[in-house]
Amino acid sequence: MKLNIAVLPGDGIGPEVTAQAVKVLKAIAMEFNHVFTFKKALIGACAIDKTGNPLPEETISICEEADAILFGAIGHTKYNNDTESTVRPEQGLLGLRKTFDLYTNIRPVIAYDDLLYKSSLKIKQIRGTDLLIYRELTGGIYFGDKFLSADGNHASDTCAYSRFEIERIAHQAFKAAQSRKRKLTLVDKANVLASSKLWRKVVLELSPQYPDVELNCIYIDNAAMQLIINPKQFDVILTENMFGDILSEEASVIVGSIGLLASASIGDKYVMFEPIHGAYTKAANKGIANPIASILSAALLLDHFGLTEEASLIRTGVDKSLQLHITTPDLNTKYDHITTTKVGDFIEDFINNPNETNLNFTNIHLGQSTII
Ligand code: IPM
Ligand code: MN
């Protein structure tokens, strides 16, 4: 298969983790005789520094011409307490999601047996967690009208949704549930918010079209608690933009590190794959950033194009790296100095030589590879 991939490394740790995902995709192309081409483009704080625009026109046209977008991370600490600037790195990512109408963001949350002990939660509660968060990505309070009074003393954001915006992602979430455990949970705040009432009404109305899917509707405050006390009760969670942002970051506690969570942002015409983590500016260029979320985003990209064997080879490589503790310091208590690049190298090696023994892979890590 031929795929043109637009690579948008972005800021902070984005470039180093994305480089590992590209490395892994190149290994897959080699092993399976695909032709993947990669075209880099600027986005975020680095794009502001170079062009004054967090989402330059050139980036938009590179993405338009690509089959898929691979995104890294966005943001810079220098903007953290800057409430005045009208140009911010995040506008690059939000602009991209909106421009390409990437309305369905899918965030898988899977607890790895080898990492259960890394979670601050109790092992018996999280073992076996396997859920998908369907986060609406192009509407709600992120994109509603914003207001700041001239005297600077009053501000508001509007959470607006249309029936159309809710229906299109709800259909996707119902279908995903049909192919899994057939349970869909709508998370909203329909006891208070008008926009949530519309979500609940529309999703309840669609439910009879999916009689094999059991639909539950729960409030976000309850969901935030349920997610960490009993994550196994969930199969597919459907929610609006900001609730999905918060819930998915909370869900990373189950998995042990936010550096593991990948996502797919799907529209009717364009697709993008992005880790759920941010730019983590402080960690940039230290070799400590976990590349697995980016590598697993590449696996989601392959899944999207039907390359499931290829995607599962990547996932087996990731599993292997976790089993052998070939991981960055956020996860590693066994070995020192396993860098971002080393994790990528290991998974690349695994793809090239999937049948080697554990011993050989451990040797690779120790720099004594027996593979010629
Ligand atoms: C995410 C991020 C973004 C979001 C930020 C960087 C704008 O937190 O993808 O979860 O809020 O959507
Ligand atoms: Mn987030």
Descriptive notes:
- Helix 7 links the parallel strand 8 and strand 9.
- 41% of the residues lie in helices and 18% in strands.
- The protein starts with a strand and ends in a 7-residue tail after the last helix.
- It is globular and about 60 Å long.
- The chain folds into 2 domains: 208 residues, Isopropylmalate Dehydrogenase; 151 residues, Isopropylmalate Dehydrogenase (3-Layer(aba) Sandwich).
- Helix 1 packs parallel to helix 12 and helix 8 runs parallel beside helix 9.
- The longest helix has 19 residues.
- The strands form 2 sheets. Strands 2-1-3-12-11-4-5-10-8-9 form a 10-stranded mixed β-sheet, sandwiched between helices.
- With 372 residues, it is an alpha/beta fold.
- It contains 13 helices and 12 strands.
- The chain binds 3-isopropylmalic acid and manganese (II) ion.
- Manganese (II) ion binds next to helix 9.
H/E topology pattern:
EHEHHEHEHEEEHEHEHEHEEHHHH
CATH topology of the largest domain: Isopropylmalate Dehydrogenase
- Spatially, the strands of the biggest sheet line up as 2-1-3-12-11-4-5-10-8-9
Regarding quaternary structure, how should these chains be classified?
A: single chain
Write the CATH architecture name of the largest domain: 3-Layer(aba) Sandwich
Helix content: 40-55%
List ligands, each type once. Answer: 3-isopropylmalic acid, manganese (II) ion
User: What amount of the residues lies in strands?
Assistant: 15-25%
- Uncertain runs with pLDDT below 50, 5 residues or more? 368-372
General form: globular
* CATH class type of the largest domain: Alpha Beta
- Superfamily at the CATH H level of the largest domain? Isopropylmalate Dehydrogenase
Distance between the termini: 28 Å
